[in-house]
Amino acid sequence: MTVTAYTLAIVLNLFCVFLGYRFLFQPASAATGYGVPADPGGDAGAYLTIKGLRDGTFGLVGLALLAFAGAGAEAWFMLCVALVPLGDTLIVLRHGGTKAVAFGIHFATAVVVLISAALLFAV
Predict the structure, then answer these.
(1) pLDDT of 1 above 90
(2) Region class of 97: left (phi > 0), else alpha (psi between -120 and 50), else beta
(3) What pTM value is reported for the model?
(4) Alpha carbon distance 75, 95 (integer Å)
(5) pLDDT classification of 7: cutoffs 50, 70, 90
């Protein structure tokens, strides 16, 4: 179970780093994939950059916690970070995105993050 817990945590954190990169360097396609398209050249440019920085930072902090503080700290981090994809679910629904994206991507991500937290707590 330890290998699974650590592997899932690492994959989720690296995915956050990837999402951050994508929002910083490919903001239009990243926003479309998020479920609420936005024009990076218009008013949304700053917000897309903020999202990229937020996601990338979450990934790096998660990796640092796992490497230097251990599974318990990472588990609490994952538990708290699960609020982000839950909030993203509501944002997509509130701003005209599809239910398939809201629940199939964001809510499902929250569930996987919570599973990761539970596995890390069990280690």
Answers:
(1) no
(2) beta
(3) 0.93
(4) 31
(5) very high
6 close to 121: Cβ distance less than 8 angstroms: no
Please state, in angstroms and rounded to a whole number, the distance separating the CA atoms of residues 22 and 26. Answer: 5
For residue range 42-76, list pLDDT tens digits in order.
889 999 999 999 999 999 999 999 999 999 999 99
Tell me how far apart the alpha carbons of residues 83 and 91 are, in angstroms, rounded to a whole number: 12
Alpha-carbon separation of residue 9 from 5, 43, 106 (angstroms):
6, 34, 17
**pLDDT confidence of residue 113:** 98
Distances (CA, A) of 29 to 1, 61, 82: 36, 25, 24
Phi and psi at residue 98, in whole multiples of 5°? -80, 155
Q: What's the CA gap between 105 and 43, in Å, rounded?
A: 25
Alpha helices in the chain (DSSP H): 2-25, 27-34, 45-68, 71-81, 83-94, 99-101, 108-122
- Cβ count within 10 A of residue 72: 12
Q: Radius of gyration (Cα) for the chain, nearest Å?
A: 15
